[in-house]
UniProtKB/TrEMBL annotation:
Pfam (any one): GAF_2
InterPro entries: GAF, GAF-like_dom_sf, PAS-like_dom_sf, PAS_4
SMART domains recorded: GAF (SM00065)
Name under which the protein is recorded: GAF domain-containing protein
Domain GAF: 148-301
Length: 415
């Protein structure tokens, strides 16, 4: 392959969104590159040519890309990578990126390899979108199968912390039914002492980012906790937790009811990008769906519990009524039996007006002395022992003491 003139390379790739760089010699000295290349690797501070790629991008040393360049330069065989992950920059400015790229050797007129041309397309946004879609789908599936709310919110927080291009700590607070206080929902990466301290904070103007967002029903972006007046009462707490920025979004039900807040914390002062705000909006909506579903399930469970309690109470009442009815039927049967005994006893004593033995003992008989005379409203009377007489009085309404010589019923009751 013959060399491509430098001005032709610039013409072809100068305004392209494709990443292009031409490198010469075994040290891969950057001879030419388009603006997209410099923007991808770190912007204006790296817009330099005439130096080896290893010096321009020292972070590549342990990532394998320089070794691939050496192999292509040595063998003359092109190399193509798909969704190759690379960490660009160092320290707090480092970012994860993904590229589809090709390394192609180019030759001089004699066919000798003199350098390598790199052409690529950054796929970072596509890769992140794929991850986001997969993570979001998994959360929706959790909600659909009615996973516990704490499990859903904790998984959501961890997903965002993985997806965000910068270090972020996520917190979800849940509103009390009256909307006046916020309770801990999920915050897997925040210190326990911090979560405990803000559990139950009031909603109101100036109460940190979350209390204010809940009060206003709109996002509250605090880019520097160290200077923002909303954090006056919580500044020391945030400092101990290593927090420097907090962007809070209210979580609202479809009817506008406050469900909670969704917060993204950072360890350095930060201004959100459009992608940050879009991520917060998306997952605040997901949190709203999960919390509303949880409230519906709680209401259903409470209604089912009340229905079960009412059913149990009704069953208890029916059982009591059945017992009372059975007892009444038993008393009616006993009353009928005693009435029959009275009639039998009256007939038996026709020949003996005052028998010696109790006549109210039924088929089994009774050997106790006949001490009391009882009668009913039909005129039947009989003599019996005190025990059988009491049984008759209790179970047969029309029976009364008829022993005149003993003072009747009053004398018997006052004995």
């Amino acid at each position: 392959m013959t060399a491509v003139p430098e001005n032709a390379e610039r013409t072809l790739f100068g305004q392209s969104i494709a990443v292009f760089a031409a490198m010469s010699g075994p040290e891969h000295t950057v001879r030419a590159a388009n603006p997209a290349f410099f923007a991808a690797i770190g912007g204006a501070d790296r817009e330099r040519t005439g130096i080896p790629l290893a010096d321009l991008m020292p972070e590549l040393a342990d990532q394998g890309f320089l070794d691939l360049l050496d192999r292509v330069y040595r063998t003359g065989e092109p190399y193509t990578g798909r969704d190759a992950r690379v960490v660009l920059g160092t320290g707090p400015d480092a970012r994860e990126a993904f590229f589809d790229f090709t390394y192609e050797p180019y030759h001089d007129a004699d066919g000798t390899i003199t350098g390598i041309r790199m052409i690529g397309v950054e796929t970072t946004q596509v890769k992140h979108a794929q991850r986001l879609t997969a993570e979001h789908r998994a959360l929706l599936e959790q909600i659909a199968r009615q996973a516990p709310l704490t499990e859903v919110l904790d998984g959501m927080a961890r997903s965002i912390e993985r997806l965000a291009p910068d270090d972020v700590l996520v917190s979800v607070l849940l509103a009390d039914p009256d909307g006046r206080h916020l309770r801990h929902g999920a915050a897997p990466s925040l210190p326990d002492f911090y979560n405990e301290a803000i559990d139950g904070i009031a909603t109101g103007e100036g109460v940190g980012s979350c209390g204010t967002a809940a009060h206003r029903r709109e996002p509250v972006i605090v880019t520097d906790i160290g200077t923002d007046p909303f954090w006056t009462d919580f500044r020391d707490l945030a400092g101990r937790a290593g927090l420097a920025a907090c962007w809070s979004t209210p979580v609202l039900a479809r009817d506008g009811t406050l469900l909670g807040t969704f917060a993204m914390y950072h360890r350095t002062p930060r201004v959100p990008r459009d992608t940050d705000l879009a991520l917060a909006h998306l997952f605040a909506g997901t949190a709203a769906l999960a919390i509303e579903r949880h409230h519906i399930e709680q209401a259903q469970q409470a209604a089912e519990a009340r229905a079960r309690a009412a059913h149990d109470e009704l069953a208890k009442t029916v059982r009591s009524e059945q017992r009372l009815r059975a007892a009444a039927e038993q008393r009616a049967a006993e009353s009928a039996e005693l009435a029959a005994r009275m009639r039998a006893a009256a007939a038996a004593q026709a020949a003996a007006p005052h028998p010696e033995k109790c006549l109210l003992g039924g088929p089994k008989g009774c050997t106790n002395p006949a001490e009391l005379k009882v009668a009913d409203s039909w005129g039947d009377s009989a003599w019996g022992c005190p025990a059988h007489v009491e049984e008759a009085i209790i179970n047969v309404r029309s029976i009364f003491i008829a022993s005149e010589e003993l003072g009747g019923l009053a004398a018997y009751l006052n004995r």
